[in-house]
């Protein structure tokens, strides 16, 4: 997941911010008050909402880690607020940690889940999305250990999944990003524009449909008399007219037409006859 390169500096700023120190103190007092209230009451809801309002600055700090995604900042902030609400609902002062330390991983995790769910060009199951991340880490670790690219079996063993899971994840990884079929490719020099991707995609060859007929016709044509074979070759291989064929063979154009029609009709019947 892409994060701001100075993510650590944000954490440092968070720890030393005077405002955050005040938030810690207010949150501690509000959680103590919340612990003495009955869940579901109006006062409980009021204190809970006050906790969320008091800690919205945490969402801003978390969102800065993803500041390169400027076009999504509004969505990131809203998702971060959802993470904050979840942190408030789950936090227990008896955990022995401050709420800020508990809430930040929850908020950041919610934002990362948002990216996993929305940034894929093609929707894939959450299991595959998470496996892709695990395999990426395993690939890096094994490449260092083995001094080569790991095999599918080695990745499966490290991630404790099957080899089929690894292959499925690797196939699904291609769905993370997609480009337009009209986007231009580039030649080997990296400067000159090549053809669009759409022009490089293969298509069905219409001649493939006639391959089976050609194979079936071959023995049938071989069984024809020499004159009929010659006429077929002149007409369809050499693209000669019936008049030119007649002149070549010393017969009339009408005779060539009758022989050609009779030969084609015979071949058609033989070709369509049940086996």
TrEMBL record:
It comes from the Bacteria. Residues 51-120, 132-184, 221-269 form the RNA polymerase sigma-70 region domain. Signal peptide: none annotated. Keywords: DNA-binding, Sigma factor, Transcription, Transcription regulation. This is RNA polymerase sigma factor SigF. It comes from Streptantibioticus parmotrematis.
């Amino acid at each position: 997941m892409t994060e701001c390169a100075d993510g650590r500096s944000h954490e440092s700023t968070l720890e030393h911010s005077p405002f955050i120190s005040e938030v810690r103190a207010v949150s501690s007092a509000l959680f103590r008050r919340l612990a003495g209230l009955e869940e579901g009451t109006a006062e409980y809801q009021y204190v809970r909402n006050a906790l969320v309002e008091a800690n919205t600055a945490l969402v801003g700090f978390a969102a800065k880690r993803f500041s390169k995604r400027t076009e999504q900042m509004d969505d990131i902030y809203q998702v971060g607020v959802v993470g904050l609400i979840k942190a408030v609902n789950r936090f227990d002062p008896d955990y022995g940690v401050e709420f800020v330390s508990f809430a930040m991983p929850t908020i950041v995790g919610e934002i990362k889940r948002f990216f996993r769910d929305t940034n894929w060009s093609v929707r894939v199951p959450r299991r595959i999305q998470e496996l892709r991340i695990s395999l990426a880490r395993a690939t890096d670790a094994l490449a260092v250990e083995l001094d080569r690219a790991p095999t599918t079996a080695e990745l499966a063993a490290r991630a404790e999944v099957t080899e089929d899971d690894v292959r499925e994840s690797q196939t699904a990884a291609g769905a993370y990003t997609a480009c337009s079929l009209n986007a231009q490719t580039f030649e080997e020099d990296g400067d000159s524009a090549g053809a669009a991707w759409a022009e490089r995609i293969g298509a069905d060859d219409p001649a493939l449909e006639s391959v089976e007929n050609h194979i079936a016709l071959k023995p049938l044509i071989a069984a024809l008399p020499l004159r009929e074979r010659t006429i077929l070759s002149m007409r369809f291989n050499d693209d000669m007219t019936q008049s030119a064929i007649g002149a070549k063979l010393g017969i009339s154009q009408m005779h060539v037409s009758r022989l050609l029609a009779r030969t084609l009709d015979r071949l058609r019947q033989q070709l369509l006859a049940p086996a």
